[in-house]
Give the backbone structure.
Amino acid sequence: MKFRPQRSALLSLVAGFLVSRGFVEGGSWIWIFLGLGIFSRSLCTQSFRYRCVAIYLFAFSFLLFLLSWSSIYVGTLPWLLLCFGEAFFYLPLALVRYQSAMSYPLLFASALVFCEFLRRQFPFGGFGWGRIGFASTHSPFSAALPIGGVAAGTFILACTSAYTFHLFSFFTVRGAITTVLLFLLSAGLNVFYKISDSDSMIKVALIQGGVPQLGLAFNDNPSDVFSRQFNQTVKLIKTNQVQLVVWPENTVLIENGESSPDLRTLHKLSGALKTPILVGAVEIRDGHIYNESLLITDSSTLTYSKRKLVPFGEFIPLREISTLISPLASRVHDFTPGTHRTVFAVADKKFSSLLCFEILDDAILRDAALHDQFIVVQSNNATFGRSAELFQERQIAQARARESGRTIGYDSTTGITSIIDNNGKILAEAQPFASETLISDLEISSKVTPSMKYGGVIELLIIACFSWGMVRRWVKK
């Protein structure tokens, strides 16, 4: 079946919307499977020019619905410009031209991995939100995550989808056998590759204390945010009840180092509970602002400074232009990034804290999983209100748990605070926008998944597949 350019453009818009449905509350990988299949099929009979148009429309549609939460407090124009710019990174897909029912799905899927790779790198440190592999945790393809990482999750889902939809128009026995084998292999790995071993358990309490108001002004009264976490802690946590208490990101403001009143209060609280407290803090030190995670005991403070900062959220690139687009940019003070990981330990168990946006960074995740036995994610979702951002970020945390083989304690100011096991399953969760405390045992594991060792190499091999296809086509011509 040959699609006319106009119909191909319309199908691309619909496909982008369908793929975005896999990233909403209650969304399913089925929507992504359908969307990518329709999209890949509609491209294969078009000229290069029409492929570029259709691909851009797909990407813009996908990002528009995926990132709609970004417009809630900063306005429509920044949201549209973000989608407009990010959509260009999908144009390398236009280099893939239909050659055969066997090669096209492979090249399509590997090109998509390449596009996601570019998005993670550029500009201003990249923006990897919405990678297809993040939505594969509860699909038949989830075993790709611990074996090959998120890139492998994207590749196998896109490849299987493209093969399936191409069988309707370009049926070949080899293509049918390949599609069936992909499904069987993925399903088999998904059944048998479960991470079940654990060295021991550690009891933690995740505090979701809430904020006085949602939006960019959530922290206009830092003492109120602090009090909410403090009151939630003392109300439910007893002495020696847990081995670690966790507060979300941005819940403590420190301006005077160890003499800060809030820090002194936390030292006393830790001593009273006989439990270390991990808090998310904003610290002003030597004229610089840091987003930090502090492990506090009655007599010590161990500090980790966030390394992966949010462009336009924690620092403003092109500040003069950004301020013209949105006056809110003038309210953002540039944070200073940290330079190294910090080794946290509780009861001789090592763990890492990933601060919000850092969960998108493959290198930071691998650094944590290779050295530590469980992971804590501290986040502040208050700036995105009652939006799909809450569910999308937790979806990323689920994929990261499955990928790394590490149990994750996901703690947020407003939700959705959760305990996620090392297969990506949610064991317990708090109600969004409620003040709650989750007390649970986290499994401790020292097993390192293949993706944590070789995930970067596997991604490069997938990209090399795309490059090989393009070079081979150029040599033939």
The domain at 200-448 is CATH 3.60.110.10 (Nitrilase/N-carbamoyl-D-aminoacid amidohydrolase). The mean pLDDT is 90.
